[in-house]
Amino acid sequence: MSRQPHKQQFRQIRRTPRFAAFLLSGGLAGLLIGFFLNVIGPVDSRYEASAALGFLGLIFAGLGALVGGIVAVLLEKRP
Prior knowledge:
The chain is mainly α and 79 residues long. It has a domain at 48-79. The protein is built from two helices and no strands. α1 (19-40) runs antiparallel to α2. The chain starts with 18 loop residues before the first helix and ends with a helix.
């Protein structure tokens, strides 16, 4: 059995962000912000508290997921 020396080849490893993790993290952060704003915000008698909580949570979760996706795309595009 003959052993030949291995030639080392250096490869540059490119790590790309995991989009699902960024979207989920942004969505959860937005959801928490929406819930927090509902708790500290003024009370509106036209809407029930649970409806306002749901609307704010849903809106801010969508915005948070959008921001998380934008951050992931910007991290992917960097050199």
